[in-house]
Design brief:
Elements lengths: L1 E11 L5 H11 L4 E9 L2 E10 L1 H11 L8 E9 L7 H122 L1
Antiparallel strand pairs: 1-3, 1-4, 2-3
């Protein structure tokens, strides 16, 4: 039996299905023992895999894993070396990987629910804001209506005042005309009386001259 450790390094080797990809390769080669996990090496993504099988199977695994990669992965280097530790059975790793994937799904689902709750809270907040804006808008419309009503009443008062003023000017003008007519009539009457008195004075003077 041959035990090997495979180290895959690259810009994108996590979250691209690398471990299921290697597991499928192991099952196709009927490798008895296998384990794989995601790690970081000096801050960069990496995947390491352990196999324990015949030398022929180990060689085939390394050749294929060094030339074929999962879709959407970005692999820079694949290194292989001997390994001396224990390796779990392939079927046990399958159950382990399934449990890990289910755990991730549960965590992802929880995060999604949490995000959904936050979204609902934001929606509620937005609805409250919109309702307040609607109320404010209604208040503004009511205020504008009251202002427009006051403006209409002020305009009506102005029109009435102008009408009264115009009517007042007309009345004054009419009174002036009446006063002027009355004054003319009084003046003409006084002139006529004065002329009568002058005529009487002249007649008296004429009689006095004749008598002298």
């Amino acid at each position: 039996m041959t035990r090997k450790k495979l180290l895959v390094k690259g810009q994108k080797v996590h979250d691209v299905g690398y471990r299921p990809f290697l597991l499928g390769l192991v099952e196709s080669l009927e490798i008895e023992r296998f384990f794989a996990d995601n790690i970081f090496i000096e801050g960069k993504q990496a995947v390491y895999a352990l196999i324990d099988s015949s030398e022929e199977n180990a060689k085939a695994f390394i050749e294929i894993a060094s030339s074929k990669f999962p879709e959407n992965s970005d692999v820079e280097k694949v290194e292989a070396e001997d390994y001396t530790g224990n390796v779990m059975k392939t079927e046990s790793y399958y159950r382990y990987l399934t449990a890990m994937q289910l755990s991730r799904i549960a965590t992802y689902g929880g995060n999604m629910l949490e995000k959904q709750d936050r979204m609902l809270d934001k929606q509620d907040t937005t609805i409250c804001i919109l309702e307040r804006v609607s109320d404010d808008t209604s208040d503004m419309k009511s205020t504008m209506s009251r202002i427009e009503g006051k403006q209409d009443r002020m305009l009506e008062k102005q029109d009435l005042q102008m009408e009264i003023t115009e009517r007042g000017f007309a009345d004054v003008k009419e009174e002036v005309h009446l006063l002027r007519d009355d004054f003319r009539e009084l003046f003409m009457r006084e002139v006529s009386e004065l002329r009568g008195e002058i005529a009487e004075v002249k007649a008296t003077l004429a009689r006095m001259q004749e008598a002298g």
